[in-house]
Design brief:
With 339 residues, the protein is an alpha/beta fold. 42% of the residues lie in helices and 16% in strands. It has two domains: 16-246, Type I PLP-dependent aspartate aminotransferase-like (Major domain) (Aspartate Aminotransferase, domain 2, 3-Layer(aba) Sandwich); 250-337, Aspartate Aminotransferase, domain 1. It contains 14 helices and twelve strands. The protein is globular, with a radius of gyration of 21 Å. The chain binds pyridoxal-5'-phosphate (PLP). Pyridoxal-5'-phosphate is lined by residues 59-61, 64, 85, 138, 168, 170, 196, 198, 207.
Length: 339
């Protein structure tokens, strides 16, 4: 049984007060635009991020895809980080379902895409080329907060070259909590933004896309086409409202706990753990079988996720300080067992 689940901040379960809000939600058919709770969530999020309109989606993947499709037509191109979620971890949806050509660009170690790489990738107006329409950035990027000055410079560059800008802000609230910027300031650098309510904010389901009114109306048609026109969404929108009202202000606690976890892991140099990045810690050991280590932890009720020899730890509202202490004990036991 998993006691301490560090795999992702998506694993949280709705608590009693969130479930009570869901049970009490006023609902109607959201496809007919008849769901008062969904409308309240959309209005509240648009206001919070200082955008004209918002649209509720089942997943962040669908919110991003609808956003990309509303910005780009068939045969258009979008500039995106080589390691970005929309390019790498969404099944290639932009290309497959949107007929949008991705132009992936290298992500620097700090998560940014170099400005000259962006400038050089924008295609000239020449019939040989796809039409470059959009720059898509991601913040936080694997837990990293993109610097304020970079957000300003990259989006300014895109605008000056006639591109639209989209932010995959699945963890936008973590970025805001870790910087001195309000989420609306970060969102304000971009034309459109997606935000996951089911990540560190604790809602069971749901993401939201914000942007100009005409853009959101376009995205509404695309959402329907993608099968995302859900009906009595008030039940889950109520959870999302609860998440926005109660679980944003506490994100700093997750970041502090990730820093504590990084300190615990650093006691064992063989683990190769890096410093905390908002609510995440990554470790890439040089000479340690990560599968065996993860299996050892799993036997002790601790779950961690991993790919390509790197393990990722994510803190969230269903973990506490005792979870971090148990990780320390399990690591001690692991290395004792090796001697
Ligand atoms: C999780 C995530 C998404 C997609 O969200 P789903 O709800 O899992 O589809 C998009 N972008 C980033 C950066 C994410 O972390």
């Amino acid at each position: 049984m998993i006691v301490d689940d560090f795999r992702s901040d998506t694993v949280t379960r709705p608590g009693e007060s969130m479930r009570a809000a869901m049970a009490a939600a006023d609902v109607g058919d959201a496809v007919y635009d008849d769901c008062p709770t969904t409308k309240r969530l959309e209005a509240k999020t648009a206001e919070r991020l200082d955008k004209e309109a918002a649209l509720f989606f089942p997943t962040g993947t669908q919110a991003n895809l609808a956003g990309l499709m509303a910005h780009c037509g068939r045969g258009d191109e979008y500039l995106v980080g080589q390691m970005a979620h929309t390019y790498r971890l969404e099944g290639g949806g932009a290309a497959v379902l949107g007929s949008i050509q991705p132009q992936p660009l290298p992500n620097e170690p700090d998560g940014t895409i170099a400005l000259d790489a962006i400038a050089n990738a924008i295609k000239p107006k020449d019939f040989h080329f796809a039409v470059t329409r959009l720059l898509a950035l991601e913040n936080t990027f694997n837990g990293l907060v993109l610097p304020d000055a970079y957000l300003e410079a990259a989006t300014q560059l895109a605008r000056s070259r006639g591109l639209a800008t989209h932010l995959d802000g699945a963890r936008l609230m973590n970025a805001a909590a870790a910087s001195n910027r309000d989420a609306a300031w970060i969102a304000g650098q971009f034309d459109t933004v997606s935000l996951c309510l089911s990540k560190g904010l604790g809602a069971p389901i749901g993401s939201i896309l914000v942007g100009p009114k005409d853009f959101i109306e376009k995205a509404r048609r695309i959402r329907k086409m993608l099968g995302g026109g859900m009906r009595q969404t008030g039940v889950i929108a109520a959870a999302a409202i609860h998440a926005l009202e109660h679980n944003v202000a506490r994100l700093g606690e997750d970041h502090r706990r990730a820093a504590d976890l990084a300190k615990v892991l650093a006691r064992f140099p063989a683990l190769g753990a890096g410093p905390a990045r908002t609510n995440m810690v990554f470790m890439t050991p040089k000479a340690l079988d990560t599968s065996a280590f993860a299996a050892f932890l799993r036997d002790r009720g601790i779950a961690v996720s991993g790919r390509y020899g790197t393990l990722r730890w994510v803190t969230h509202l269903d973990l506490d300080d005792a979870s971090v202490e148990r990780v320390g004990t399990a690591c001690e036991n692991f290395f004792d067992s090796k001697q």
